[in-house]
Specification:
The chain is mainly β and 203 residues long. The chain is built from 3 helices and 16 strands. The strands form 2 sheets. The protein has an 8-stranded mixed beta sheet with strand order 1-2-5-7-9-11-13-15, with no helix packed on it. Strands 3, 4, 6, 8, 10, 12, 14 and 16 form an 8-stranded parallel beta sheet that branches.
Length: 203
């Protein structure tokens, strides 16, 4: 299924959306303007790798891998569901997020901000700012750069939002993600996600 054709945002939609943007997101997502192109939702895709920035007006569901590449913005005004999420750009979700594995790295230049709750199997942050106004839950939530901020509760079998040592990472993440020296390697993470394989080590 391809993306729907964009249409201009109406005045009423603009006012409603701007009123729903939390003040915490003002630095990442300023007021929308009437007439900006939006993709009418709900949008349901087998997988989705962005080629340019876009706004989804409503819910977005991606059965497989959702890739938010560098220098792009993805705004979802409803909820987001995806089999897996690779984010290196800017991602703004005004509803809830339910995804499988998540990896974020933009050398601390971009953000993933969620107004609602964030449910994931495994979140791995390495130089990407995450802010969740609701709760965060999953099997593992791992911050390697101390830039995951959760305003609500955190419920995970392994929660390390204050950073992890290499030896701790190796106990949680799959061995294929590390080089011979025991360091976590980004291309290996990306390749495993593109192959549809889990980031967590088998228990």
């Amino acid at each position: 299924m391809s993306l729907p054709s964009p249409r201009p945002l109406s005045a009423d939609e603009t006012a409603s959306l701007n009123a729903s943007i939390p003040t915490e997101f003002s630095d990442y997502f300023g007021p929308l303007r009437e007439g900006v192109p939006v993709l009418p939702g709900p949008v349901h895709l087998p997988d989705f790798e962005q080629e340019e920035s876009c706004i989804v007006l409503g819910d977005l569901q991606v059965d497989g891998l959702l890739v938010n590449p560098p220098h792009t913005t993805l705004v979802v005004t409803g909820s987001l569901r995806a089999g897996a999420l690779l984010t290196m750009g800017k991602l703004v979700v005004l509803g809830d997020v339910v995804v499988g594995d998540v990896y974020g790295n933009s050398f601390c230049n971009e953000v993933c901000v969620v107004k609602g709750s964030f449910t994931t199997r495994c979140l791995v942050e390495k130089g990407h700012f995450f802010e969740v106004l609701g709760s965060l839950s999953g099997e593992a939530a791992l911050s390697l750069s101390n830039v995951v901020s959760v305003h609500g509760s955190v419920s995970a079998r392994v929660a390390a939002l204050g950073g992890m040592k290499d030896e701790e990472r190796r106990k949680v993440l799959d061995a294929s993600l590390f080089d011979d020296s025991g360091s976590l390697v980004e291309p290996l993470i990306v390749a495993r996600m593109r192959a549809g394989l889990p980031l967590l080590r088998a228990v």
